[in-house]
Amino acid sequence: MRKYLLIFLGILLLIMCIIFLQKFRKEQISQVETGIGIPSFGADESKREEKLLKDDELIEIEPNNINLTIPCKVTEYEQVRRYGVVTKARRLYQLPIGHDDLPANTPVMITRYMNLNGMDFLYVIDRENLKWGIIRQERLMSVFQEEDSPARYYFDIILESTINEPNGSRAMDGCVVVTFDMCPSRRPMESEIFEYLAKFGKEVGYPIPVAFCMSADWILNHLSDFQQLVQYHTEGKLNITWVNHSYTHPKSMPFLADQQYDATFKSHEVIDTERIMIEYGVLPSVFFRFPGLIDSPIRLRELNELGLIPIHADAWLAKGEKPRDGSIILLHGNGNEHIGIEMFRKWVTPKEKQFINGQRKFVELQDLIRRKSRR
User: Which of 156, 187, 259, 278 has the highest local Cβ count within 10 Å?
Assistant: First the structure.
């Protein structure tokens, strides 16, 4: 009798262990699939975890044909281990603790989540002021507002920017935006123009804002040059906005509008480039510039799904386009189009005194887009 009782107890214990392990494994899988399970603020240990984002709001995008464990980084993060897109970005969350350009109590949207060196982070956007940042997920409170009209303001910017008209087409007295496209190239970058802008910034009284449109291919093949650009920014010599310019940057028409990129545009050309930029120590902005400034209705829709704003230009100097008030100037800083650099120097040199006395001004890309969208 005692023998059978021990056997029964042993079987019962085994069943309980199996049930516990299955439940534990299910919870682990759920956390791996979502990456966003966090304790609610002020909760004690007796309360279970609450998910900031629901399972159906997350799409994890795996790296496409790249090894993200890369040497010679200029970032504190060794590896972007996981990276995902948040699909329902219209929901607002509250940032209770200030972070860089994002003050406390700022309503923000989440558009990306990632694991950096084993820690979970979120990419958030202040949709009112077009500011963004990467924060630890525990710094974010739960839902602040649901589907409110101000949240749609950001998406109105996206919809307006997808119109095939130059973004700088509306006048802004004396203001221009300078952008440099860093497409794949075998030539060294245009260091002289960057040095000129860094020195000229001291004369105008502020680090000149410039937008660098980065292709991942250029970053990976020009690491020392890229590190120099990062240094310009970290040392306050230039005020840089980092723009996604695709991974491979096709060299001929119709560029990324070609159907052969249907399967890789979002995952490789856009998302993998974001991951590379983060791994190499820079924060991607909310902007994307199409190679050759060529887009298509399909690509614009896909970009909108990723929560990114397409940026065109109305003053591609090498093509003979003249800057005017409110222009977005397009230059190539990768050495492939030096004539554009020369034309920019000829344009800006006679106007230096106007920039110094404030009659003219270099402005941030996001400042121009924000002002236009609030017309």
Answer: 278
The CATH label, of 3.30.70.240, 3.90.700.10, 3.40.1370.10, 3.20.20.370, for the domain at 163-373 is 3.20.20.370
What is d(CA 183, CA 332) in angstroms, rounded to the nearest whole number? 8
Q: Give the Cα separation of 108 and 94 in Å (integer).
A: 6
Question: Is the Cβ–Cβ distance between 264 and 250 less than 8 Å?
Answer: no
Q: Provide the pLDDT confidence category of residue 67 given band limits of 50, 70 and 90.
A: very low
Q: Could you tell me which of 333, 231, 243, 332 has the C-alpha nearest to residue 290?
A: 243
Do 34 and 55 contact (CB within 8 A), yes or no?
A: yes
Strand 58-60, strand 80-86: pairing:
antiparallel
The domain ranges of the chain are 51-152, 163-373
Specify the higher pLDDT residue, 82 or 168.
82
* HSE-up of residue 4 (Cα within 13 Å, Cβ side): 1
pLDDT band, very low/low/confident/very high, at 161 (cuts 50, 70, 90): low
Q: What's the alpha-carbon Rg for the chain, to the nearest Å? A: 24
